[in-house]
Amino acid sequence: MTTDQKHAHHDGHGGHGHGCHSHGGHGRDNRSHDSHGHEGPGGGATGQEFWEAFYAERDRIWSGNPNDVLVREVADLAPGRALDLGCGEGADAIWLARRGWRVTATDISALALERAAGHAAEAGVADRVDWQRHDLGASFPAGSYDLVSAHFLHSPNDDLPRETILRTAAAAVAPGGVLLIAGHAGFPPGEPNPHPDVHLPTPEEVLADLDLPEGRWEVLVCGEHERIQTRPGEEAVRRMDNALKVRCLPE
Ligand SMILES: C[S@@+](CC[C@H](N)C(=O)[O-])C[C@H]1O[C@@H](n2cnc3c(N)ncnc32)[C@H](O)[C@@H]1O
């Protein structure tokens, strides 16, 4: 079952009462918007229209495997409460649930969430994942989490306020918890960039934009890496991604 903006504890991004960020969610947002490299309806489509059409193009878009960065950076963490932002077809959330995490997973696309819930049921972890539909630019799941993960939360649409969302994500991290953000650093060599005007932020820029309070956070990973991208029906390609992993110091 998926829920539509269930438990949205606030509209917009006012910050969290029990999270790890004293002033999360407010402030700058230059609305730099990113692309994950797919052609889509774009143009005047809203974020939800764009992503619903994107997922409707094929029965399965992503590989079904968890993201490498997630596997690498989370394998050693003790399971707790996790929040997956822009969960798509659910591979990361299901991987986490299989490892004992209790997961809240959210996406703007109802179709992606429906598929994700189906995959979770097949994997026998339906009871460990709460699927919630949110346009994260407008509402955000309630609660605080031991892990907040955002993998490739990019959109060619103008209406994804990524920096604000990621600051709200930091505010949702419980003391002692981890915020993990993976992004694309560029397009695969030889693949035309359909959105050349779009800026893909470096992990240093992502860190600066989080505007984390001094002395409260520890930077564990901040860098670029090469990855082999595999998608159903497509040739494997090498591409550069980046990752930022920060830990909120225990109180
Ligand atoms: C490039 S995909 C990544 C999916 C998944 N995290 C992964 O790594 O395979 C970006 C995801 O972000 C979601 N998304 C885009 N804009 C969003 C928004 N405003 N609120 C919530 N989810 C959004 C899209 O529907 C899509 O599933």
Automatic annotation (TrEMBL):
Entries under Gene3D superfamilies matching the protein: Vaccinia Virus protein VP39
Gene Ontology terms: biological process: methylation
EC number per UniProt: 2.1.1.-
Region (Disordered) location: 1-47
Biased composition (Basic residues): 15-25
Listed Basic and acidic residues bias regions: 1-14, 26-39
InterPro entries: Methyltransf_25, SAM-dependent_MTases_sf
Keywords noted in UniProt: Methyltransferase, S-adenosyl-L-methionine, Transferase
Pfam families linked: Methyltransf_25 (PF13649)
Top-level taxon: Bacteria
Boundaries of every Methyltransferase domain copy: 83-177
Gene Ontology molecular function terms on file: methyltransferase activity
Entry-linked PANTHER family: METHYLTRANSFERASE, UBIQUINONE BIOSYNTHESIS O-METHYLTRANSFERASE, MITOCHONDRIAL
Official protein name in the record: SAM-dependent methyltransferase
Species this chain originates from: Streptomyces pathocidini
High-level lineage: Bacteria, Bacillati, Actinomycetota, Actinomycetes, Kitasatosporales
